[in-house]
Amino acid sequence: MSRVLFDHVWKSYASVEVVRDLNLAVEEGEFLVLVGPSGCGKSTTLRMLAGLEDVTRGNIHIGDRNVTYAEPRERDIAMVFQSYALYPHMSVEENIGFGLRNRGVANAEIDKRVKNVSSMLEIGHLLERRPRNLSGGQRQRVALGRAIVREAGVFLMDEPLSNLDAQLRVSMRSEIIKLHQRIRSTTVYVTHDQVEALTMGSRIAVLKDGRLMQADTAENLYERPGSVFVATFIGSPAMNILSGTVEGGDGGPSIRSRQFKWPVDPKASLKPGTQIVFGMRPEHLIVGAEGQTGNPATVTLIESTGNEAVVLLDAGGDVLKAKVPGRVRLTVGQIVSVSADQSELHFFDATTEERIRA
Amino acid sequence: MTRIRRKIPVWSITLQVVWFIIVVFPLYWMTITAFKERADVFPLPTFLPWVDFEPTLSAFRTVFGQYRSQLFNALANSAIASLVGAFVATFAGALAGYGLARFDYRQFGWKNDNMAFFFISQRMMPPVAVVFPFLLMYRYAGVLDRAWSLGIAYALFNLPLAIWITRDAFRAVPAEVEESGLVDGCTRLGVFYKISLPIAFPGLVTAFFVSIIFAWNEFLFALILTFRRSQTLPVLISGQANELGAYWWIMSALGLIGIIPMVVLGLYAQKWLVRGLSAGSVKG
Ligand SMILES: Nc1ncnc2c1ncn2[C@@H]1O[C@H](COP(=O)(O)OP(=O)(O)O)[C@@H](O)[C@H]1O
Ligand SMILES: [Mg+2]
User: Fold this and answer.
1) Where in chain B are the domains?
2) pLDDT one-digit tens code per residue, A251-283
3) In the prediction, which pLDDT does B276 show?
4) Does B275 reach chain A within 8 Å, measured CB to CB?
5) Which helix (H) or strand (E) holds A201?
6) Which ligand is nearest to the CA of A207?
7) Which of A110, A243, B146, B197 is found 20 to 30 A from B244 (Cα to Cα)?
8) Phi, then psi, of A335 in degrees rounded to 5
9) pLDDT of A266
10) At what angle do helices A107-120 and A136-148 cross, to 10 degrees?
11) What does the mean pLDDT of chain A come to?
């Protein structure tokens, strides 16, 4: 088990900068998820850590070693590839034992560890098979087993579940988490799926265009997103983002956005007159009957999932999404009044789009 | 995959029969001729054993008697030249093929595809055009009339095809499978030997097989670059047609003998020539 440190790491292909000044530490035994939209540099980051890609600038440390220029085999890492990358000419048993055999582990020890891991993953009955005779889920387990058996210092996974069907993906998610709780190895897990990231990561690093936007726990990312990007990327449906001007006044401070007024908590101490971007999560919007306090809006679409519904509202030109619990008593075209829970408003600087700390 | 049963149209069957006759007739003719005597060959052709003529082993008696040392010498020379030609071509071809498949080159403005095309273009050269330069080079180097040096010439001729075939075979090895090997503790070379080579092995067998067949049957270079000592089987066979006439029955017997090693090799190589070994390594 080792700590991982990215120290001002840059990666560029020709003139394209793919990873920009990455500073990130993964603590011993931590399960860190790298998440971000497709093409934001997650795989490149992981591959640099694995030694499969050269680092353009900066340093990578594993444990107390600087591994920036070390070969993959010298880094004490194990990796699960998105495509599984099983060795097609070897049986499951040989696949799992390959890394140990390369490192000169004694045959008896290899047998023991392969048996252990394959029973842990419930693939003990498949040991004689070739990868081509396995289902997708079974291949996935073999790929996991091949990485676990090594008992490496750092465990890398690049979208390991993206080739599985939805149901299997959800069950493998919790299996991987359980597995991590048992073996407690330092893990860097890459995914583009924010739900997967939130449910799996003990800490989540959000990447955008090769830049680390925020690395934090799921709760903090959700409750205190550091930027508009993180605010909208994390959570589903995405946070509603509006812009407006701060106003003072007798009834307390508020933000005027188009013809609407959103009262805000005085404790947020926003300066009247400033341009501001603010956001509220769909679950924190309050939809009331016409005429109640709040801003008038028209219901344009209702997506019900049975126990709750997402309601699309047209609020004077702004589209708002609200999450409404329980049975919905709304109809499309109905006029409602919409307000927000003041303590759940998020404020961002209008130019930098960064969070305004209260 | 589901198989669709359907009627094969008459014109298709006719074409197939015609094609079958075109392919099989020479083989049939050679086979029966090997069991004839002079009297069965001249003056009128005979077609059916035991009907037109009485099969005899006399051609084989001549070949294994009077021609014995010549035959075994020719077989040995053919074997050496073909094996050298196929081994060198497959080995060098696999290295080049792996490089072209796995790395991105840019040398003097040439990229991988330019290089691959350059290699294959070597094969488009008519052999007659280069055989005399070869004769001069070989004489200067003092390696004329040697089976192994003939094999080197064959290797050069086989190389383009070997590169092409092995390149395709290595291309079918997913990059992530190799990277997985690197993470699992292999060196680059270790990955090549333990992972890429076994997966691409059917391609290498194909390259070897194509090379050895070419070399085994090659005539022009063998005729020009060897004399008595290193004569190969095709040259020995063609020598049976000379100013005294053509000994068709002897040629046929030699031809039959010459086919046997290739048939045996083909049967042995068959299990490797079945493709699709890499299936199942990555996702679907
Ligand atoms: N070998 C390469 N050459 C040039 N650009 C590359 C190469 N590999 C990746 N990229 C670019 O780097 C960016 C990040 O890629 P990647 O790390 O694979 O993204 P992610 O895994 O987050 O989807 C992408 O825009 C991609 O086009
Ligand atoms: Mg990726």
Assistant:
1) 18-56, 65-273
2) 788 998 888 888 888 888 888 889 999 999 999
3) 40
4) no
5) none
6) 1
7) B146
8) -90, 130
9) 84
10) 130
11) 92
Q: Which residues of B touch A98 (CB under 8 A)?
A: 181, 184
The CA-atom distances, in angstroms, between B45 and each of A129, A165, B269 are: 59, 70, 37
Q: Which residues make Cβ contacts (< 8 Å) with residue B214, sequence separation at least 6?
A: B85, B154, B157, B158, B161
Alpha carbon separation from A119 to A96, A146, A298 (Å, rounded): 12, 13, 57
Nearest chain B Cα distance for residue A115, angstroms: 18
Domains and CATH numbers, chain A: 4-229 (3.40.50.300), 240-349 (2.40.50.140)
pLDDT > 90? residue A22: yes
Which DSSP string corresponds to B247-279?
Answer: -HHHHHHHHHHHHHHHHHHHHHHHHHH---TTT
Chain B residues within 8 A of A91 when measuring between CB atoms: none
Amino acid (one-letter) located at A254: S
State if residue A44 touches ligand 1 by the CB under 6 angstroms criterion: yes
Ligand 1: which atom is nearest the Cα of residue A190?
21
Both tokens of B232, joined, read 């190969």
Q: Is the confidence at residue B284, as pLDDT, over 50?
A: no
A161 CB within 8 Å of a chain B CB: no
What is the spatial distance between Cα A265 and Cα A280, in angstroms, rounded to a whole number?
14
Decide whether any atom of ligand 1 lies within 6 Å of the A41 Cβ. Answer: yes
Residues of A in contact with B203 (CB under 8 A): none
Q: From B185, which residue of chain A is nearest by alpha-carbon distance?
A: A73
Ligand with minimal distance to A158 CA: 2
Of all residues in chain B, the one with the smallest CA distance to A138 is B283
Q: Is A43 in the pocket of ligand 1 (CB under 6 A)?
A: yes
Chain A residues near residue B183 by CB distance under 8 angstroms: 50-52, 72-73, 77-79, 99
Contact B278 A88 (CB under 8 A): yes
Buried b (16+ CB within 10 A) or exposed e, B232-247: bbbbbbebbeeeeeeb
- Write out pLDDT tens, residues B43-78: 777 888 888 888 999 999 999 999 999 999 999 999
**Residue A48 Cβ < 6 Å to ligand 1:** no
Residue A51's nearest CA partner among B255, B38, B188 is: B188
Please state the CATH superfamily assignment of the domain spanning residues B65-273 in this structure: MetI-like (1.10.3720.10)
ipTM of the complex: 0.87
- pLDDT reported for residue B183: 96
Pick from A96, A130, A127, A125: which is nearest to A113 by CA?
Answer: A96
Q: Return the number of CB contacts < 8 Å for A and B.
A: 91
Read off the pLDDT of residues B192-214 as tens digits, 9 standing for 90 and up: 999 999 999 888 998 999 999 99
The two structure tokens encoding residue B257: 């003998």
| Closest alpha carbon to B158 in B100, B106, B105, B89 | B89
Q: What is the DSSP string of B104-124?
A: --EETTEEHHHHHHHHHHHTT
> Hey, what are B136's tokens?
């001069």
Q: Sorting pLDDT into bands at 50, 70 and 90, what band is B2?
A: low
pTM: 0.83
Ligand 1: atom nearest CA of A44 is 17
Rounded to the nearest 5°, which phi and psi values hold at B131? Answer: -70, -35
Of A151, A147, A148, A193, nearest to A173 (Cα)?
Answer: A193
C-beta atoms of B184 and A51 within 8 A: no
Are the C-beta atoms of A2 and A188 separated by less than 8 Å?
Answer: no
